[in-house]
Amino acid sequence: MSRQRSRLPARVTGLVGGGAALGFSAFVHAPWWVYLGVALVALVPAVLPQESEHRRDFYRDYFRHREQMVRIRQGAAEPPGS
């Protein structure tokens, strides 16, 4: 039960803060890219895992995937028969 309580404030804070920033941006007639940036910043805490082990696993898997994609691209860039 305490785990759900600890995750809720970070998500609620991000969404409420993002909503307030969007409202302020609309008030000052900000460009479209400001809305997009604020929406992304508000959604990141809500989407990423909050537990440290899960966050570690997320980033480990993300960087492992990126390394695999780099190796695949480097292998495709080499001419055949090298």
What features would you describe in this structure?
The chain is mainly α. It has three helices and no strands. Helix 1 packs antiparallel against helix 2. The chain is elongated.
- How many E strands? 0
How far the N terminus sits from the C terminus, by CA atoms, comes to: 59 Å
Secondary structure category: mainly alpha
SSE arrangement, N to C: HHH
Shape: elongated
Rg from Cα: 20 Å
Main sheet makeup: none
Low-confidence parts = none
Q: What's the pLDDT, averaged over the residues? A: 74
Strand content: under 5%
Q: How helical, in percent, are the residues?
A: over 70%
User: Helix tally?
Assistant: 3
The gist of it:
This protein has 82 residues and is mainly alpha-helical. It has three helices and no strands.
Which descriptors would you attach to this protein?
82 residues; mainly alpha; 0% strand
List the helices and strands and how they pair.
Layout: H1 2-27, H2 32-47, H3 52-77
